[in-house]
Amino acid sequence: MSKIIKALTIAGSDSSGGAGIQADLKTFEEYGTYGFSALTTIVTMDPDNGWHHNVYPIDAAIVAEQLKTVFAGGPVDAMKTGMLGSVDIVKVAEKAIKENLQTNVVIDPVMVCKGEDEVLNPESANAIRDLLLPLATVATPNLFEAGVLSGLGKLTSIDEMKEAARLIHALGTQNVVVKGGKALGGDLAIDVFFDGSEYTVLETAKIEPAYNHGAGCTFAAAITGGLANGLSVHDAVVKAKDFVSAAIRSGYAFNQYVGPVFHGGYRLER
Ligand SMILES: Nc1ncnc2c1ncn2[C@@H]1O[C@H](COP(=O)(O)OP(=O)(O)O)[C@@H](O)[C@H]1O
Ligand SMILES: Cc1ncc(COP(=O)(O)O)c(C=O)c1O
Ligand SMILES: [Mg+2]
């Protein structure tokens, strides 16, 4: 057996299986990596109440214990964060990254689930901005999150996405991808990658129906899988865009409310 490649996610549980830690571990597997996890929150969706999301954060001390377990084997080849749930959990993630000299850190600054109100309180969003972005190899905000982190508010064009990427890079992350996804108008799903000097605009035709619940988590987990396998950040992002596009194409209607991506789509198309 060749060397085991290790990938870690610090994220919430999406009981419906498309996003969160479920998306991350399934994606890590597709990338041939061994997945570790530290669970931060449990999210449930209520079919009797318009698919309303309930978010239950886990005690930060228990998140810290999980990370102690994971890092007992030393740093991993790459890691990501997703929904963190409280300022204390953000601080636990920050401490673990610093103490373990962890590199290849993907920060997905989850503030919203599609179509839902903000799930993270503003304090947690500020903590991600101030404590985690300076530790990030790459940050992957969606259009809404990029508007919040950059302070620009609603973003409506590629130029505004580029400006947001520049401002978010200045917060300390080494690279940033602003995901336009379905949220940006037009026929294309456009993401803007910025490495601190050059912009790369990644675009695909918008896939319809847009079975994209979990697309953001899957995209960030795919970048993590690419980095763990030794790809450059640029190449990991480009491959992740292909990976998530295939996952959306293979998605399905779970019920009247939600259509998750299928994380094995990229493999099935080959
Ligand atoms: N309907 C779609 N067709 C093609 N790509 C999409 C579609 N919706 C989202 N994406 C892509 O999926 C990835 C995740 O973006 P997005 O859905 O905006 O993130 P989030 O899930 O965090 O809100 C991005 O690469 C985005 O461009
Ligand atoms: C636990 C968890 N993390 C993250 C997300 C965000 O998912 P997405 O990949 O669609 O941005 C969700 C959405 O439901 C979730 O339940
Ligand atoms: Mg997201």
From TrEMBL:
EC assignment: the record states: 2.7.1.35
Keywords from UniProt, A to Z, are: ATP-binding, Kinase, Magnesium, Metal-binding, Nucleotide-binding, Transferase
Q: Which GO terms describe its biological process?
A: thiamine biosynthetic process
Q: Could you tell me which residue ranges the Pyridoxamine kinase/Phosphomethylpyrimidine kinase domain spans?
A: 14-261
Name the reaction it catalyses.
pyridoxal + ATP = pyridoxal 5'-phosphate + ADP + H(+)
Q: Which GO terms describe its cellular component?
A: cytosol
Could you cite one Gene Ontology molecular function of this protein? ATP binding
The Swiss-Prot or TrEMBL record describes its family as follows:
Belongs to the ThiD family.
The record's PANTHER family line, in alphabetical order, gives: PHOSPHOMETHYLPYRIMIDINE KINASE, PYRIDOXINE KINASE
NCBIfam families xrefs: HMP-P_kinase (TIGR00097)
Its name, as the record gives it, is: pyridoxal kinase
